[in-house]
Amino acid sequence: MNENRIKGEAHVLKGSIKEAIGKITGDRRIQAEGAAEKLAGKAQAGAGKVVDAVTKAGTK
User: Fold this and answer.
1) Total structural domains within the chain
2) What digits encode the pLDDT tens for the residues 13-57?
């Protein structure tokens, strides 16, 4: 597991929490920030998965 996957998953978690807080408090700005952070985290984690797959394929 590489650094991009770890950081990406952390952003997804942080974004989910932020989005939930925004929904609970009715703060649309916080909710939107959370959704955006979650999306960016998913992209970063996905890039990390690709790197892991390429690295794994290269060792076989």
Assistant:
1) 1
2) 999 999 999 999 999 999 999 999 999 999 999 999 999 999 888
Is residue 8 within 8 A of residue 42, CB to CB? The reply is yes
Structural domain containing residue 50: 3-55
Side chain identity at residue 5, one-letter code? R
Owner of token pair 């703060």? 27
Whole-angstrom distance, CA of residue 19 vs CA of residue 47:
23
**Can you give the pTM of this predicted structure?**
0.85
Residues 49, 11, 42: CA angle, nearest 5 degrees = 40
